[in-house]
Design brief:
The chain is an alpha+beta fold and 416 residues long. It folds into two domains: 310 residues, 3-Layer(aba) Sandwich (Beta-lactamase); 94 residues, Nuclear Transport Factor 2, Chain: A (Roll), CATH 3.10.450. The strands form four sheets. It has a six-stranded antiparallel β-sheet with strand order 2-1-11-10-9-8. The protein has a four-stranded antiparallel β-sheet with strand order 12-13-14-15. It has a three-stranded antiparallel β-sheet with strand order 3-5-4. A hairpin with a 2-residue loop joins strand 8 and strand 9.
Length: 416
């Protein structure tokens, strides 16, 4: 059977929960020393390295990336480092154009494959999630920091005292579990690899708990509070609820941050309630197809450990704009129907028009309609209206954060 672990923390408390096998069918039980790959939920570690370099004055987040990388095409070179961190660069998703999800191993190979791809939009015109952004940040970190990006991430983890985390590939994690490698073993190939930064970090349950505690204590970026991790982006002069490797939400006015990931047989979800200084990291060795269940497992576990820390406490509220709800449901849970472009704001229209096989038009259809689609939070923020919907399915609940413009078009949608 597949295996998973949960690292759950709150002030003065932590709990580790694990179940299943360290690889499906292996017969070896998951322990607190089993390695799990974090996939894209580890992107924020690359962001921490970049923010530390900025704190030291080694780079400027406002500077164009071409100031640090001389081998970029001119159409890429003017994008700021900050826009790479928060996915408003307008640069393309290189996975859309590759035959598989195995990235090239060197900077030269990456530039050959992806460097000639045209941008999808000017910087700041839209928010578009792109792994290319974080691979480029890895190049910048290596160029400025004088060591491979993987070494810089590993050094950061060492300096903040997190031993149960490694820069490592999915294959390394599987091999380490199968051979019961000693705790100090490193993935030296990943440490030296040039193309890195979009999520190549593995955790044990204990390491995940340690890292959560550093994040919640504002100790993840040495020399800084790390506040820029959680600063919303801007697109079309509107706030975008994404920081540097984190999706951003609120719970009755208090800040939340989360990020999921799945890649090459692994699924992960990390969630922070900064106001309560509690959080959860859920990791599984089964993918694809488990993202929604891992997200639900993470929220349910933290809510049981720290009641009131998640949107699971929110009751349905009176819906003063049922028309917005009807539009959100029709456009964001579409089954196999195409998105109706006129219901989306300009920044979303760009993504719809330029969608590729990896980043298609946003659609949160789960294979069946929810039993209930209810409004649980509604507030105005930075020129837009943000609404949270609770979707109830057999055995789980999901949430959908939807942002609309003053003229009632959708400019943001992301699940929790």
């Amino acid at each position: 059977m597949a295996g998973c672990c949960l690292a759950i923390v709150a002030p003065g408390r932590r709990e580790i929960v694990f179940q299943g096998e360290d690889a499906p069918g292996s017969g070896r039980s998951v322990t607190d020393r089993t390695w799990f790959q974090a996939a894209s939920s580890g992107k924020h570690l690359m962001a921490c390295v970049i923010l530390e370099l900025a704190t030291r004055g080694a780079l400027s987040l406002s500077a164009p990336i071409g100031e640090y990388l001389g081998d970029l095409p001119s159409t890429w070179a003017d994008r700021s480092l900050r826009s790479l961190l928060n996915h408003t660069s307008g640069l393309p998703e290189y996975l859309d154009y590759s035959d598989d999800e195995l990235p090239p191993n060197t900077r030269a190979q990456f530039m050959k494959r992806a460097g000639e791809l045209p941008p999808i939009a000017p910087e700041g015109a839209c928010w578009s999630y792109s792994n290319s952004n974080y691979i480029l940040l890895g190049f910048v970190a290596a160029q400025v920091g004088g060591q491979p990006a993987g070494v810089l991430i590993g050094d950061l983890l060492h300096r903040v005292g997190v031993t149960g985390a490694r820069v490592a590939t999915p294959d390394w994690a599987r091999a380490a579990n199968a051979a019961a490698w000693p705790a100090e073993t490193r993935d030296h190939e990943s440490l030296a690899r040039e193309v890195i930064g979009d999520g190549d970090v593995a955790f044990t349950a204990q390491g995940a708990a340690d890292w959560l505690e550093r994040l919640l204590a504002c100790e993840a970026v040495p020399g800084s509070t790390g506040a820029e991790l959680f600063e919303p982006a801007q697109a079309q002069d509107r706030a975008v609820p994404y920081g540097a490797g984190w999706f951003l939400e609120t719970l009755d006015g208090a800040p939340l941050a989360h990020h999921g990931g799945h890649y090459d047989g692994w699924t992960a979800m990390v969630y922070l309630n900064q106001a309560r200084r509690s959080g959860v990291f859920a990791l599984s060795n089964h993918a694809p197809g488990t993202t929604r269940h891992i997200r639900w497992l993470a929220l349910a576990a933290l809510e049981a450990f720290d009641p009131g820390a998640t949107p699971l406490i929110q009751a349905a509220i009176e819906d003063e704009r049922p028309d917005l709800t009807a539009t959100a449901r029709a456009q964001l849970l579409r089954d196999d129907r195409s998105a109706e472009r006129e219901w989306f704001a300009p920044e979303f229209q760009i993504a719809i028009d330029r969608a590729g096989p990896v980043r298609g038009p946003v659609n949160f259809w789960a294979g069946e309609p929810p039993d209930a689609f209810e409004l649980v939070q509604d507030h105005h923020a930075d020129g837009s209206r943000m609404r949270r919907y609770r979707m109830t399915y057999p055995g789980r609940r999901e949430f959908l954060n939807v942002g609309t413009t003053p003229d009632d078009r959708i400019h943001w949608a992301w699940p929790l």
